[in-house]
Design brief:
Mean pLDDT of chain B: 93
Largest interface: A-B, 28 and 32 residues
Distance between the termini of chain A: 21 Å
Radius of gyration of chain A: 20 Å
Number of helices of chain A: 14
Number of strands of chain B: 12
Shape of chain A: globular
Structural class of chain A: mainly alpha
Strand order of the largest sheet of chain A: 1-2
Strand content of chain A: under 5%
Mean pLDDT of chain A: 85
Strand order of the largest sheet of chain B: 6-7-8-3-9-10
Number of helices of chain B: 10
Order of helices and strands of chain A: HHHHHEEHHHHHHHHH
Low-confidence stretches of chain A: none
Distance between the termini of chain B: 44 Å
Number of strands of chain A: 2
Oligomer: heterodimer
Strand content of chain B: 15-25%
Chain lengths: 323, 264
């Protein structure tokens, strides 16, 4: 446990350093340091204006998605749950594709539309899942999420198939996720917005332990189950919607990081969630670094990298724990 | 502390018949009450209504003189420990971690786990004789061990009242007996106990009172010998039985084969 904590403490700064170093222009560690501390150094523009906000945004998003994944897995009592399961991907995708097709020429149009689409999906899924009076039923939530997502996805495909080929590629690349558009303003907006739902989820750790046992046992042990379910659902949804808005859909982080941390550290959510945040953040920073360098000067969608790197790692972990 | 139902009635939406119809019952310190009856007679609904999980259609469920519906779940969990009928493990944790979850109501969302919490958890583990299992993952336990872990978790809540819904379902004779012996000891130490069970013969030997439910109503409520009578059971369960008496005076029920005549 102590060794693991030490490893974690090293992992975070290491990932940030690698993130600052990775990119189409090769900088020495000294250049990076100069760029960070001296505003007028040659490397300052690249390090401070391009890489630093990008690395920090990737860290925050990776951490947030992982916390969301861990929380939803407990809420839905489903190890397969990930941040996009409950219809958000469809809603956000639809918003983005519509914005790209219309092309209003406003720089924040795509993220804003993606957020609006995700928020619409959340509202619809929530409305559908509140059954028999005022209970939020996780099983219905799952179904509602999947059908709302499919519906939005179908409309998205329809809109996309009617638009021009270049727009289509742009829309799909955007959906696949990436931090190419990261900026200080995007970072600040995301950080300010994500802070509340993140804190709420981190404080829900013990309640999530109980929800993971099932509603009946959770009630008997003293949890206000209805309230906790709502809080977790709303916080996770808002957080996912914001992350989709700033970087499209980055798959895999939210599914696998929680499982890996559960196996390697602890399954108890009060400790799990903060660790998941750090590991998820570091993982996404590293994945983004890879995405920027493997085929430079081109960039891969970071979502593809998270899966290509994450799946073998996770497969190894699965084998190790079951044999 | 006393848990009581007074003329408690429950109706589910869309069902004409009441699931519980004017049920009254008292669970008090140092006494073990067994609730029994055929499948669908309302046993679990009674438990849920007593615990404030089902809104009654009439009558009331009172805990310590106050309506259960007025209790916050957190406060309730500090005085009533429950072992529910079913619990499926999705994310396996260790026995120690499971029993520690019994401290939730005492801890709230933020407080760090303290000396008292560890102490209560350890005591509960010892009480249920599962301390050696503390580091085991719950998905590796046998059915009997798992029930003990769940009982230990309820004890870690440091309750004054213990409610168990079919705790020995699918346990073998030894585990069934061990669990009932343990429950009996806990009750002897001053806990109030309510156990829902299909095991008429165990209820007869361990419970102070038996409440026999049928179609949502109390058929009889009394000492085992008053409740477990041949004509009553044959009528309620719709199957002929014979009743004998064991050397400690408790009635024992023997279901008859089809066409078999009752002795005597």
């Amino acid at each position: 446990m102590r060794r693991a904590a030490l490893g974690l403490l090293l992992l975070v700064p290491l990932s940030l350093a690698v993130g600052l170093w990775a990119g189409p222009v090769t900088l020495s560690p000294l250049d990076i340091w100069d760029g960070l501390v001296h505003p007028y150094a040659d490397s300052s523009a690249i390090v401070r204006d391009l890489r630093l906000p990008r690395v920090l945004l990737a860290f925050l998003v990776g951490g947030s998605l992982s916390v969301v994944g861990a929380s939803l897995q407990a809420l839905l009592r489903n190890p397969l749950a990930d941040p996009y399961l409950l219809g958000l991907s469809g809603g956000a995708g639809l918003g983005a594709v519509v914005a790209i097709a219309i092309n209003p020429g406003w720089p924040w149009a795509v993220p804003a539309a993606a957020f609006a689409g995700a928020a619409g999906a959340i509202a619809l899924v929530y409305r559908l899942s509140v059954v028999s009076g005022r209970r939020l039923d996780p099983r219905v939530l799952l179904l509602a999420g999947v059908v709302v997502g499919s519906f939005a996805g179908a409309i998205m495909t329809t809109v996309a198939s009617l638009s021009e080929a270049t727009e289509l590629k742009r829309a799909f690349l955007w959906l696949l996720g990436g931090f190419g558009a990261a900026s200080w303003s995007a970072l600040v907006v995301f950080a300010a917005y994500a802070a509340v739902p993140l804190v709420v989820l981190l404080l829900s750790g013990r309640a999530l332990d109980l929800l993971a046992l099932g509603e009946e046992s959770a009630k008997h042990l003293g949890a206000d189950v209805e309230r906790n379910k709502r809080i977790v659902y709303i916080a996770t949804s808002l957080l996912t919607a914001a992350s989709v808005a700033v970087c499209g859909m980055v798959g895999f982080v939210g599914l696998v990081v929680p499982h890996a941390v559960r196996r390697l550290w602890t399954p108890m959510h009060r400790e799990l969630l903060p660790i998941v945040f750090l590991v998820g953040g570091a993982f996404l920073v590293l994945a983004d670094g890879l995405a920027r360098t493997i085929v430079r000067p081109l960039e891969l969608p970071v979502g593809a990298v998270t899966a290509i790197v994450g799946v073998p790692l996770f497969a190894m972990l699965l084998r190790r724990n079951y044999t | 502390m006393i848990l009581a139902a007074r003329d408690l009635s429950v109706r589910y939406p869309g069902v004409a018949r009441r699931v519980l119809d004017s049920v009254s019952l008292r669970v008090e310190p140092g006494r073990l009450v067994a609730v029994t009856g055929p499948n669908g007679s309302g046993k679990t609904t009674l438990v849920n209504a007593l615990l404030g999980l089902v809104v009654p259609d009439g009558g009331s469920a009172m805990l310590d003189g106050r309506p259960v519906s007025g209790w916050r779940r957190g406060s309730l969990a500090k005085v009533v420990g429950v072992v529910a009928q079913r619990e499926e493990v999705v994310f396996p944790i260790t026995v120690w971690q499971t029993v520690m979850l019994g401290r939730y109501a005492h801890l709230g969302p933020l407080a760090p786990i303290g000396f008292h919490d560890r102490e209560a958890t350890l005591r509960a583990l010892r009480r249920c004789d599962i301390e050696p299992l503390a580091e085991r993952r719950v998905d590796t336990l046998s059915g009997g061990e798992w029930q003990r872990v769940r009982l230990a978790r309820a004890l870690a809540q440091q309750p004054r009242i213990l409610v168990l819904d079919e705790p020995t379902a699918s346990l073998d004779v030894r585990h069934e007996m061990e669990l009932f012996e343990l429950i009996r000891t806990l009750v002897a130490d001053g806990l109030a106990g309510l156990v829902v069970t299909h095991e008429l013969n165990l209820a007869a030997r361990f419970a102070d009172r038996i409440v026999l439910l049928n179609e949502g109503r109390v058929v009889v409520d009394g000492a085992p010998a008053e409740v477990l009578r041949r004509e009553i059971l044959t009528e309620v369960f719709g199957w002929p039985v014979a009743v004998t008496t064991w050397s400690d005076g408790s009635p024992q029920v023997i279901p008859l084969r089809a066409g078999e005549a009752a002795p005597g």
